[in-house]
Amino acid sequence: MSKRITVMLDDEAAEILPRLAGGARKQGEFLSRLIHAAAHREPEPGPSDLETLRVQVRGIIGELQSINARLVTLETRNE
């Protein structure tokens, strides 16, 4: 059974919550899991698989840009 409650969050937390939950409609479920994890002293649930994938892709893009910049530097030195 679910119960509706009102929760006050600061502006930044209110912007972050839907992203961590994987959407606006999943915020209650996410907070419920977080509370259960804290009550049972389990690790906090992490970001959704999609968010994890986004972070990994951004990291890969950053690495590729860094490698590309190094290659350009090496090519200009060898010319």
Task: Explain what this protein looks like in three dimensions.
The chain is mainly alpha-helical and 79 residues long. It folds into two domains: 1-45; 47-79. It is built from three helices and no strands. It has helices at residues 11-21, 27-39, 49-78. The radius of gyration is 20 Å and the shape is elongated. 1% of the residues are buried.
List the helices and strands and how they pair.
Elements: H1 11-21, H2 27-39, H3 49-78
Helix pairs in contact: 1-2
Uncertain segments are none
How confident is the prediction overall: mean pLDDT?
85
Helix-strand topology string: HHH
Write down how many β-strands occur, each being a DSSP E stretch of 2 or more residues: 0
Helix vs. strand class: mainly alpha
- Strand proportion, as a percent range, falls in under 5%
How would you sum up the major sheet?
A: none
> How many distinct helices?
3
Distance between the termini: 71 Å
Which terms summarize this structure?
79 residues, mainly alpha, 2 domains
Brief sketch in words of this structure:
With 79 residues, the chain is mainly alpha-helical. It is built from 3 helices and no strands.
